[in-house]
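User: Before I run my own analysis I want an independent prediction to cross-check against. Here's the chain; please return only the structure tokens and, at the end, one sentence I can use as a sanity check.
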Amino acid sequence: MSGIVFFKTHKLNELKKFYTEQVECKIWMDQGDCIIFQNGNFLFGFCQRDDVDKCGIITFYYDAKSEVDRFYEKFKETATSSPSKNKKYPIYHFFTFDPEGRMLEFQYFLRK
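Assistant: Structure tokens:
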């Protein structure tokens, strides 16, 4: 079983560039007005539509804390704060936004 999460967008070309160049995702499938991205085992897509979906958080998790720090360096201008340990959940993370205002989270699961 696999799945894909789709979002409606007004900025398909801008998101294509952002997610491939800045977030380092691969294009899994380009269907013209819909693009599906892959980041590890995570598939998510955007379709050019009249409305925009900005609900929820797109979370990317990594096997190394240093990867979160590396992405923070890319996004520190738009990040809501620097990476930190979450007191409630065993994660190290930070939040930022994509070009259309969707919240993104970059995180590492802290192992006990």
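Sanity check: The mean pLDDT is 96.
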